[in-house]
Amino acid sequence: MKQVEVSILGQVYMLGCPEGGETLLSSAVHAVDREMTGIREAGKVKARERIAVLAALNLAYQLAERGQAAVVAPPAAAARNGAAVGSDEAALDALIRRLDNALGDDGRLL
């Protein structure tokens, strides 16, 4: 595994990257940096840790919306377990509402 130096929100990180994964890692770093920069520039959140959490949640939500990531379980596993796939969306919406309430004046997630 090779080490790759990246910059996110002006801070440099050394990340491990599997051979051939540089392009995918670069795309991920760009997405995280773009999301964190957008949150910081909105001016409502100042703490780097909160910016990182909000960015991670926004990106995870976007992936879940596109169906590229299972929030609770893949649809096939959910069906095997008797769980309704639609309940995943309701659970995610409820989680976002709880996080919005907890964050208060720091701003909304979405």
Structural description of this entry:
The protein is an alpha+beta fold and 110 residues long. The protein has one domain (2-106). The chain is built from 4 helices and 2 strands; from the N terminus they run ββαααα. The protein has helices spanning 22-42, 48-66, 75-80, 86-103; strands spanning 2-8, 11-17. Strands 1-2 form a two-stranded antiparallel ribbon. α1 (22-42) packs across α2. The longest helix is centred in the first third of the chain and has 21 residues, at 22-42. It is flat.
Q: What is the C-alpha radius of gyration, as a whole number of Å?
A: 17 Å
How is the largest sheet built, in terms of strand order? 1-2
Give the SSE order as H and E letters: EEHHHH
Give the domain tally: 1
Largest sheet: 2 strands, antiparallel
Q: Spans of 5+ residues with little confidence (pLDDT < 50)?
A: 69-73, 77-84
Number of discrete helical segments: 4
Morphology call: flat
Mean pLDDT: 77
Short structural description:
This protein is an alpha+beta fold.
Features:
110 residues; single chain; alpha+beta; flat; two-stranded antiparallel sheet
Architecture blueprint of SSEs:
Layout lengths: L1 E7 L2 E7 L4 H21 L5 H19 L8 H6 L5 H18 L7
Antiparallel strand pairs: 1-2
Helix pairs in contact: 1-2
